[in-house]
Design a protein that fits this description.
The structure is a single chain. By secondary structure, the chain is an alpha/beta fold. The protein has a single domain (6-201), classed as Phosphoglycerate mutase-like (Rossmann fold, 3-Layer(aba) Sandwich). 32% of the residues lie in helices and 19% in strands. It has a six-stranded mixed β-sheet. Strand 2 (55-58), helix 3 and strand 3 (77-79) form a beta-alpha-beta unit.
């Protein structure tokens, strides 16, 4: 069996939820999407239907699984809890206005990469679980000659991975709307996977950038 040196990796953010609309922190709370909003993903559905995916992965949370079900892809999905959003602990369901006077919240805003969210997750723990998932994904792609992979996940996961493979891009520079995503074309060079290009999904080739 041959090995693959190229990979198109589609990272898709789930559809919108009530808490997303209300700008509440939503991490591990298992809230579903707003069903009436799924039709807004029709362009995404149309684009992805054209592609045969060798593998599909999804976060185990309802908002990702429901979005994936709407897209109605032919490939069976592997469910993986490592693809969850950051766990916001005591701040789940709260807004900036709710928390802005909280001393621990202020500390986190000033040093979010180092600070442990109360009863939640540190950024180090978040990165570690995603890195482990990606390491397995790339190994599996190489060994089993998989060249098209879709990952249905969350905004923070996509931000982290894009900033990881494009070092010139900071975590907060990455903006992915609900029901949108990115296509990363990866190439294996000297044993490491590097990103050759990034496109917004649904594709905007006729747009201005």
């Amino acid at each position: 069996m041959g090995t693959s040196n190229y990979l198109d990796l589609f990272l898709i953010r789930h559809g919108i939820t009530d808490w997303n609309k209300e700008k509440r922190y939503l991490g591990h709370t298992d809230q579903g999407v707003i069903k009436s909003e799924l039709e807004l993903l029709s362009d995404l559905k149309f684009e992805l239907k054209k592609i045969h995916f060798d593998q599909v992965y999804t976060s185990d949370l309802c908002r990702c699984k429901e979005t994936l079900a709407y897209l109605n892809l032919t490939s069976l999905a592997s469910v993986d809890s490592r693809l969850r959003e950051l766990h916001f602990g005591d701040w789940e369901g709260k807004t900036y206005q709710d928390l802005k006077m909280d001393k621990e919240y202020k500390l986190w805003l000033n040093s979010w990469e180092d600070y442990q969210i109360p009863n939640g997750e540190s950024f180090v723990t978040f990165k570690t679980r995603i890195d482990l998932f990606l390491e397995e994904l790339f190994h599996d792609s190489t060994q089993k000659n998989k060249s098209n992979i879709l990952v249905m996940t969350h905004g923070g996961v996509i931000r982290y991975f894009v900033s990881k493979v494009l070092p010139e891009t900071a975590f907060w520079d990455v903006t992915i709307n609900h029901g949108n995503g990115v296509k990363l074309t990866m190439e294996q060079k000297k044993g490491e996977w590097v990103c050759n290009s990034l496109l917004v999904v649904p594709f905007q080739e006729k747009g201005n950038g």
